[in-house]
Amino acid sequence: MDHLSGHRQQTIILASSSVYRRQRLAKLLPTFETVSPNIDETPIEGESAECLTARLAREKAKAVVSGQPALIIGSDQSASLDGLTLHKPGSHANAVKQLQNCSGRTIRFYTGLCLFNNVTKNEQWSVETCDVDFRALSNDEIEHYLAWEKPYDCAGSFKVESAGINLFKALRCDDPNILIGLPLIQLANMLRTEGYNPILARAPVSAEYDCHYSEVP
């Protein structure tokens, strides 16, 4: 560890095969590895959406076996409407039903996050929430949107990072990345607790690439 900078270089592993989480993490970290955790994600009978995401995030992080010291990130997401868990639709018909049920209503999304140190066995975890107010959606809007993005692998049947934002009236959350399945603000806090500073992990930009501004007379 560099005691002047307060940063310890470490191997980071994302326990996920999700392209969306990989894209989000690339915004935060210069380098990391990805490993599919291959766990059973079947909900326990009577398990709430919040408890499900917490349990699966922790299981994913601990399921990854690495031959080197590493900080392993696990994450999972689900949503609920009137206390009922909304899962990934998996088909067009299920996605239509989900969006029809969400139309004009508020959905709560839960994203479970875990950072596991495979050497010290220290485990940090949390569940972050985001409330989404949907607009009143017409059947034509639903059909056109699903044909456009085909979000059948996304909880709630939309992609917030692209055209799905058209479906919403408002979002209420501490971090918009919660909706994409990887809360970066909370993750950065967890990494710093482990001595890994995402800002200091990046190589300094050469001065010749600095942006300069001058007023035009």
Give the tally of β-strands: 7
Spatial gap, N to C terminus? 49 Å
Proportion of beta-strand residues: 15-25%
Residues in helices, as a percent range: 25-40%
Sheet with the most strands, sense and barrel status: 7 strands, mixed
Please tell me how large the radius of gyration is.
Answer: 20 Å
The shape is: globular
- Mean of residue pLDDT values: 88
Helix-strand topology string: EHEHEEHEEHEH
Tally of DSSP helical segments: 5
The low-confidence runs, each spanning 5 or more residues with pLDDT under 50, are 207-217
Structural class: alpha/beta
How would you sum up this structure, described in words?
This protein has 217 residues and is α/β, with parallel strands linked by helices. It has helices at residues 19-28, 49-63, 92-102, 139-149, 184-193; strands at 11-14, 33-34, 70-81, 84-86, 106-117, 123-134, 168-173. Helix 3 (92-102) packs across helix 4.
Question: Which features would summarize this protein structure in a list?
Answer:
24% strand; 217 residues; 5 helices; alpha/beta
